[in-house]
Structure formats: structure tokens, C-alpha cells
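Letters spell out the chain; backbone shape is given numerically. Take this protein:
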Amino acid sequence: MIYFVLNSLNKIKKFPYFFLTPLVYAIGNACEEIKIAQTYVLKRNKKLIILHPYNFTNFLNYKVCNQSLFNDLISFEENIFDKVLKKSLNFLVDKEFFFRRFFVLLLKKFTNKNLSKFNFPIIGIEQIFGTKKTILHNNKKFFEYDKIKKFSLVNSNFNLEKDKEKFCEKKLNSLKIPYDRLVLLHVRDDKYRNDRHRRDYRNSDINNYIESIKHLIDKNYFVVRAGRKPSKKINYNHKNFLDYSYLNLQEDILDIFLMKKANLFIGTQSGILDLAQMFNKPILQTNMVEIFSKYPLKKNDRGIFKKIKKNNEELSISDFVKLNYIYHNPSNNLKDLSFYENNQEQLFESLNEFLEIQENPILTKKQIDFNNFLVKEHKKHFNKNPNELFTEYDSLKLLRLVKNTEGCLTNKNLSNLNFD
């Protein structure tokens, strides 16, 4: 009942609040939804209230990815009424979620029906993505590709309350981190999630980044490796390098705080990348394996793809883009493709280009041509079979995000490509 009420209130133009329940177990999805919602509410002069289920996580078989993301993040100066309203509604959302989730888990034992729509609350999500019943995957009618508008994304203004920031600063005080020179580095590996042999191509080796870390330190940056234990150990020590992933003081709020304070983010395609985007950080994506769903978003963002082989023959990035769209769905396991990590030299060269363009982030002709090629091929995928591009909950999100991309792969990564 509370789901219906809040979604109904969201549709009232003059109502001062907008309620959102991001996907609670996935930090990447949650950050992406929060960022898009922030753009939506700023255009409509509303206040964003983030709600989420939080009780009986073990009993109901779910996990909250980062409690601080939902509890401590603020985008406007909250008064007492705002705080009471949020707490009260969060309580009601959590209670309705308990009964819904309990019965979904119960029904799954007796039916083969897809009940994923009822797993988590969907408040505000369809509205910010622009989902309409006429374009859901089980309908025949779809919008024309060219008529689908991109998101009008703006720089978000998310912050932490002053007392929370002071807590973080005090907690990290002994580490003496110079926040004005902070670079955050994150490399997804198979240790933390224990997912060896499960879409293992998404993982990379932190030790291939040592030369890049040294280069950043030479440029007077202080590098912090983000992540959680257990992660693969790095064979490197320096007074201006901190392996936060191995510290015992880790907390959810510290993860948020460090990203907020960072000047640059360098990392692979995982959930923390969306946290960096949410805080508008300049981003260098490395060891990329997804081309449409995770592409450099801002003008000063860059990326470098892994080398790809199909049936033991090397596949160019442009040919990879042209593959059937099932190869571009991040939930699929690409068993007939092989991905090979960027070596230290490739990472170093990409980092150099990324650092050089920060003061004047312009694209070369090659990069402009590739971005145009990317959208053109995405349109072909859509026209060939729109059902493959749509999901029930975020049917317009990915299409609109693809049209938003203003960054690009590095020039080195695009050399010797044919876009015809």
C-alpha cells in the first residue's frame, strides 16, 4: 500500500518531495539510480528522499550493499520535519517489504513464475527512467530510436552531514591522507566475491597497476586502493600509497567519504565506478569488458578495453560492438569470448592520456568518429530486435545513457580500428 501511495505522490507536480527506493543490494545500480533521480528532482525543484528496506536481511535472504549510501547521503539541507518524514516512511516501506518479500520467497517454492518484480520496492524508479507500459518487453509497440531522449544529467550535489564528515576525518586522521591530492584506485578481483570461474573475465590483477601508481606518485598524487578484504595483495609499498582494502578500520561511511574527497578515480567496471560517477569524479576505466552499459560518461573520462578473442582469433573493439546484443548484456556469461588484461605499459599510456586531457578535455576526430559509430551500431541493435535491449524495470535507462556518453576510449585503444 505504501508503495502505491508514494508512487502516486511522486506524480504530483507541486508535491515538494520525490521518493526513491534504489536497488538495495547492488551499489552500482543504487548509485546510478540515485544520480539520475537527482537530475530528475533538480529540474522539478523537489527534494529527494531516499528510502530502503533494512530489517531481517538474513531471514529474507538479501543484503544492503552500503548502509551509509542510503542513510547518510544528503542533497539538500534537511530540517527536523524532513528527517522525521524520512524515518517514518522508511519504517513503513520496510514493513511492507517484509510481507511482500516473505510471500515471494514462499511462493517460489511452489511456482515457476518470474516473481522478481516483487523482490524489492520499485518506488520512483520507473518515473526517473521514463518507463512506459507501451515499451515493455512483452508488448509489440516500441518508440523509434531517434525519438528516445537522452538524460539531462547534471552535476549532483551529494554531501555528508558535517558531524559525519568529522567522524570520518577523525577515524582516518592517523593515516594522514592529503585529500587535495587523493586518487582512488579500485581493481575488481576474484577474492572479495569469491567468484573465480564465474564471469571471471571481469576481474583483473592489481599488480599490473604498479607502474601507474608510481607515475601518479611522481605527479605528486596520494593513491588509495579502495575495496574490501579479502582482496589480492599488491607487491608495492610507498609512503604515498595506502592499501585501504587491507585496513581493519573499514566502514560503509568511510567508503563514501573517500570517494567524495577524491580528485580522480581509476578503476575497473564494478559498482564503485557508479559511486565515482555519482560524485562527478574524473574517471579512467581500465580493463573494460562492457561497451554500452558502462562507457566513459563525461568529457574528461576515458577508458581502455581488454583485448578480446573469439574462437581464438583476436576481435577488434569495433567488431565486438557489432556482435549480437546478447554479448552486451552484463548479466550474461560470455563463454565463447576470451578477455586479456591490459598490461602495465597499456595502463601507463592510458593514464598519461587521461591526466593530460583533464585541463582541456576534448575528443580527437578518431574518438568522435568512434562515439558516432557506437550510437549508430546501438541503433542497429535496437531496430533489429528491441526486445533484447529492454528489461521490464529500466527499459529506457540504458538507451538514454548511451546517448549521454561524452567521454571515450583512449586514442591508443582506438588505433588501427575500422568503423565501417
